[in-house]
Specification:
alpha/beta; 5-stranded mixed sheet; 7 strands
Length: 146
């Protein structure tokens, strides 16, 4: 699978040897609403500031209309690499849930899922991701109260 900016300019080396966040969005419903690109831009800025740009976010987006997706990306000035997944291969191969909050993961350096949930729409998940990335011990109540 290839990553690109606006679905046009292919990007190399988006995969990290450390932590990474994987975010999958399907094409059902309002694409612009589900993408929440402004929220993700804010999160990326914050994450980059505390990690020195060392934690990539791997966006896998299943789409129906490539032109519509490219328009939404450009309209939001979202120039972060994404994988346009026309055939929904990522979801199918990984057996993802149909529940949107279970389609975002924090992976460790061995690509094991260490946390799950959407850090953009859930402040507790955001806090959990940040603490894990920083290498801090996570309080059990933080994990239990998501």
């Amino acid at each position: 699978m290839k990553f690109s900016i606006y679905g046009e300019n292919e990007v190399d080396n988006v995969i990290s040897k450390g932590y990474k966040i994987v975010h999958y969005v399907d094409s059902v419903g309002c694409t612009s609403c589900k993408l929440n690109l402004l929220g993700w831009k804010d999160f990326i800025t914050m994450l980059d500031s505390i990690t020195n740009c060392k934690v990539p976010i791997l966006f896998f987006i299943h789409f129906r209309q490539k032109r519509e997706l490219k328009f939404v990306l450009k309209e939001s000035s979202f120039d972060y690499p994404i994988c346009m997944d026309k055939n929904n291969d990522f979801c199918r191969v990984n057996g993802l849930s149909s529940v949107p909050i279970l389609r975002t993961f924090l992976l460790d350096k061995n690509n094991r899922v260490v946390a799950m949930g959407d850090p953009v729409n859930n402040p507790r998940v955001k806090e959990l991701y940040i603490e894990l990335i920083k290498g801090n011990k996570v309080q059990p109540e933080l994990k239990d109260n998501l």
